[in-house]
């Protein structure tokens, strides 16, 4: 199938985001850090902010529930940028090569508040024809609705669109909607699969 457009996820594909980058410097005990990130500041709690819940409200509610971790919970907001490990260089290079030949779009689960801080820090965001952010739309992957917003807003044909994401659940939704989906594991693996799909990179 001919490729007309390419869609990128951001966190874990173009930007290396992991709360452990911050909290490994906060907790002396690795087991306690893992407990904190799995049972206090849970992925589900973070997803609510990705879907549009304000950070301040989320943090205050969680501090009331876990007062013994109040300081550490507050850092999730106030020191959020320390969770960003920087650009994934190989992926950004692929993005630049692809953008020379195809319209590129972004589809990301990201807090609207935090994306507004992150976007100006990376020049590669200027390459995108359009970006759909979960926190802005109040919808979140892997639910189909966020994908549908992308399709409708930019007139994409999923069957002629390559989508890459590091989340297998998101890939499964994309496939169900007809996208040519690639489960991102590394820039090298992504490049190989893009070539197999006939995407021009040079």
What does this 3D model show about the protein?
Helices cover 47% and strands 14% of the residues. It is α/β, with parallel strands linked by helices. It has 2 domains: 5-16 and 87-196, 3-Layer(aba) Sandwich (Rossmann fold), CATH 3.40.50; 17-83. The chain has a 5-stranded parallel beta sheet, sandwiched between helices. Helix 10 (168-176) links the parallel strand 6 (161-165) and strand 7. Helix 4 (55-65) packs antiparallel against helix 5 (70-78) and helix 6 runs parallel beside helix 11 (187-196). 32% of the residues are buried.
Return residue spans where pLDDT drops below 50 for at least 5 consecutive residues: none
Beta content comes to: 5-15%
CATH superfamily of the largest domain: HAD superfamily/HAD-like
SSE arrangement, N to C: EEHHHHHEHEHEHHEHEH
- Major sheet size, sense and barrel closure: 5 strands, parallel
Tell me the name of the CATH class of the largest domain.
Answer: Alpha Beta
Key traits:
single chain, 202 residues, alpha/beta, Rossmann fold, 2 domains, five-stranded parallel sheet, two-stranded antiparallel ribbon, 14% strand
